[in-house]
Amino acid sequence: MIASHPHRAVDGQRRAVDERGPLGEQERDAVGDVVLVRAGDSIPVDGIVVGGDGAADEAPVTGESVPKDKTAGARVFAGTILKSG
Q: Is residue 57 scored above 80 in pLDDT?
């Protein structure tokens, strides 16, 4: 279940994209956080797509050579790479 208001929003490089400021080195991602991932970024945490669509290269995790299409509601895995979207 996704929180209606995320605790914090960060991009794939862990830069804050809201008013809370940058994340500290020791600060951990929490359930309910929303992470913005752009094409070419590594997906930093396991999660569920809440908006947008794209193709994720899951080869680093599953060995599958063909990128998988991802849309809202799809599961994504840490260590995979967003190829497009």
A: yes
Strands 34-36, 9-11: parallel, antiparallel or unpaired by DSSP? parallel
3-state secondary structure of 53: coil
Fold for 33-84, please state it.
Answer: 2.70.150
The per-residue pLDDT for range 13-54, each reduced to its tens digit, is 555 445 455 555 545 666 777 788 888 888 888 888 988 899
Q: Hey, where are the domains in the chain? A: 33-84
What sign does the CA torsion over 39, 40, 41, 42 have?
Answer: positive
**Long-range own/partner contacts, residues 57-64 (CB < 8 A, 24 or more apart):** 57/81, 57/82, 57/83
